[in-house]
């Protein structure tokens, strides 16, 4: 009986010693795992005066940052599309230790010149417009988008000239959309002219094309407030733009996933800091009309928050 008791005690002691040995071996790894992860510092430079129009894209950026270990810093401009101010911010962020940047260029050429001043300092990914010297660009095929938007108008066209809302000349990607749309209209024999904004005294035609979300929303809001009858075709998938599409203020939009754009931009810049070079395919986009809003394939595009909460 005593021998059996001694054996049981010995086994228990050996078990405790074994567990202690395993704990000693695992403790350094456990302590390392508990150490806070060093986050990559990424600055996001918009060309707008606030980030309200980038809410969904920002959610995509923050999701990518959370998954990939980055900390985001969002910066806006005092004046819309002020390339001088944007370039000052860019150089300040690089000199301040930013390890990567995501930029919506106010002027692609000016941004290229600014990057040359800090050549190779950190990876920069551009949204909307390709910029020489950047690690990548996240954008739809801008020329194809412009042609497709013009084709949507041509399906409805029954005569009269088309007004093309002209973006700032430095917004290279948006300018590509306009130029492709104008070429498509002229090939179809439809007269088109450019203007920096809607003429408040009245239009000499009943067709308007806008090529970026900001000008699309502004034109839709003015049309609704002034009860104008022109047909508006634009770009974007924000809540405000979708509401104007549903109400009939906008005839058709070119839309893509802002969430995906934001996510891909941050993923691209983080991977570039780690030496992974990957050329992204152009963002997929769709031309949508009022009747397309609630089609199942468009739910995640136009209502990304509701779609994700319903999973």
Can you describe this structure?
The chain is of the alpha/beta class. It contains eleven helices and eleven strands. Helix 2 runs parallel beside helix 9 (258-273). The longest helix has 33 residues, at 2-34. The radius of gyration is 27 Å and the shape is globular.
Chain-wise SSE layout:
Blueprint lengths: L1 H33 L5 E6 L9 H14 L1 E6 L7 H13 L4 E4 L4 H10 L6 E4 L8 E3 L3 H15 L5 E4 L6 H16 L4 E4 L11 E3 L3 H14 L4 E5 L3 H9 L4 E4 L2 H16 L12 E3 L10 H4 L1 H6 L2
Parallel strand pairs: 1-2, 1-3, 3-4, 4-5, 6-7, 6-8, 8-9, 9-10
Antiparallel strand pairs: 10-11
Helix pairs in contact: 2-9, 3-4, 5-6
Number of strands: 11
Mean pLDDT over the full residue set: 87
Helical amount: 40-55%
Uncertain regions: pLDDT < 50 for 5+ in a row? 30-34, 306-311
Radius of gyration over all CA atoms, rounded? 27 Å
SSE order, as H and E? HEHEHEHEEHEHEEHEHEHEHH
For the largest beta sheet, what order do the strands appear in spatially? 7-6-8-9-10-11
Distance between the termini: 63 Å
Structural class estimated from helices and strands: alpha/beta
């Amino acid at each position: 009986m005593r021998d059996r008791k001694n054996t049981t005690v010995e086994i228990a002691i050996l078990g405790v010693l074994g567990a202690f040995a395993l704990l000693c071996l695992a403790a350094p790894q456990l302590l390392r795992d508990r150490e806070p992860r060093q986050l990559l510092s990424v600055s996001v430079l918009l060309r707008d005066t606030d980030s309200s129009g980038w809410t969904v894209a920002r959610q995509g950026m923050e999701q990518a940052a959370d998954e990939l270990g980055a900390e985001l810093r969002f910066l806006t401009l005092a004046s819309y599309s002020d390339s001088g101010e944007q370039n000052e911010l860019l150089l300040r962020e690089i000199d301040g230790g930013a390890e990567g940047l995501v930029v919506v260029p106010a002027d692609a050429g000016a941004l290229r010149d600014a990057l040359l001043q800090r050549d190779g300092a950190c990876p920069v990914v551009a949204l909307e417009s390709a910029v020489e010297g950047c690690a990548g660009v996240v954008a739809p095929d801008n020329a194809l988008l412009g042609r497709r938007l013009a084709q949507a108008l041509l399906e409805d066209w029954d005569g009269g000239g088309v007004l093309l809302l002209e973006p700032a000349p430095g917004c290279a990607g948006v300018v590509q959309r306009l130029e492709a749309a104008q070429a498509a209209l002229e090939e179809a024999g439809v007269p088109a002219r450019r203007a920096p904004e809607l003429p408040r005294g009245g239009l000499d035609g009943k067709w308007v094309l806008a090529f970026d979300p900001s000008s699309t929303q502004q034109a839709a809001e003015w049309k609704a407030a002034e009860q104008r009858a022109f047909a508006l075709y634009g770009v974007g998938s924000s809540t405000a733009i979708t509401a104007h599409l549903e109400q009939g203020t906008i005839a058709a939009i070119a839309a893509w996933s802002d969430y995906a754009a934001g996510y891909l931009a941050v993923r691209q810049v983080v991977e570039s800091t780690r030496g992974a070079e990957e050329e992204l395919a152009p963002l997929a986009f769709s031309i949508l009309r009022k009747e397309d809003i609630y089609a199942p394939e468009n739910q995640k595009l136009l209502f990304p928050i509701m779609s994700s909460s319903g999973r």
